[in-house]
Specification:
- The chain is of the alpha+beta class.
- It has 7 helices and 9 strands; from the N terminus they run H-H-H-E-E-H-E-E-E-E-H-E-E-E-H-H.
- A 6-stranded mixed beta sheet has the order 2-1-9-8-5-4.
- The model is unreliable at 1-25 (pLDDT under 50).
Length: 246
């Protein structure tokens, strides 16, 4: 059923493309309402939202500030002694944190991935949240080449010739009115991609070199026993319902 729906959707796209480029003489004329709207139902009117915002930093300027904080000169507080971070800064990820400013800087100071990996961050998609105008969202598709031992693992022993491809990650930064980072965090958005078991951040590197920490959070996602049992019960319920209909 699902495959037929997808096929129909793809066919509709192809037909629509042909209709705009070279419509057949017998093709029906497209139905239009005479009005064009740039917003679809349920979409936020970002211009109106930003116009009503009381946050003093404009969206374009806030995106530029986020890029500045990500630059090699600052690197989210690790290169400027935390001057870009607010006093009440917190780091938070899917299973880590919140971690306050002091602990965050200390942890990154002791854990330097760049000494063992040549990392390409591949940032893209910077945008300001219209419903929280002090927040910048952006994506990363990290690719890291191991160049030195890491957690006791040599580059020669790491999968895929020492090249780790992390899954896509969605990151965010919250700023104060003064342009200081109040919160930073990230989340894996597609665990089926990459070669680090669907894990992002430091956990992805641990797993990628074959040295995952011995905790469930540092392992690829696995359904719990209860979740699996619920799935089996659901399948059993469907089979019983089908038998009753017969």
């Amino acid at each position: 059923m699902k495959s037929s729906i997808v096929a129909a959707a793809l066919a509709a796209i192809v037909v629509g493309t042909d209709a705009f480029s070279a419509p057949a003489a017998t093709a029906p004329a497209p139905v239009t309402t005479g009005t064009v709207s740039s917003l679809i139902p349920g979409e936020v009117n970002t211009q109106a939202a930003f116009a009503d915002s009381s946050f003093p930093i404009a969206p374009d300027a806030l995106v530029n500030r986020a890029k500045e904080v990500l630059s090699p000169q600052i690197e989210i507080g690790t290169r400027d002694d935390g001057k870009c971070l607010a006093d009440d800064f917190e780091f938070v990820a899917a299973v880590v944190g919140p971690i306050p400013k002091g602990e965050y800087l200390e942890a990154l100071g002791n854990f330097k991935l760049t000494e063992s990996f040549d990392i390409e961050q591949n940032f893209f998609g910077f945008t300001v949240d219209p419903l929280q105008p002090n927040r910048v969202w952006f994506f990363s598709r990290q690719v890291a080449k191991q160049i030195a031992p890491f957690m006791g693992a040599e580059p020669e022993g790491t999968k895929d010739d020492g090249v780790l491809t992390l899954p896509p990650q969605l990151l965010h930064m919250d700023f104060t009115a003064e342009g200081l980072v109040k919160e930073f965090g990230f989340y894996t958005v597609d665990r089926r991609q990459g070669n680090t078991g669907g894990l992002g951040g430091a956990f992805g590197y641990f797993y990628g070199v074959g040295k995952p920490l011995p905790i469930p959070e540092c392992q690829p996602f696995k359904r719990s026993f209860r979740f699996r049992m619920l799935g089996l019960l659901g399948q059993l319920g469907k089979k019983l319902a089908q038998k009753k209909e017969e």
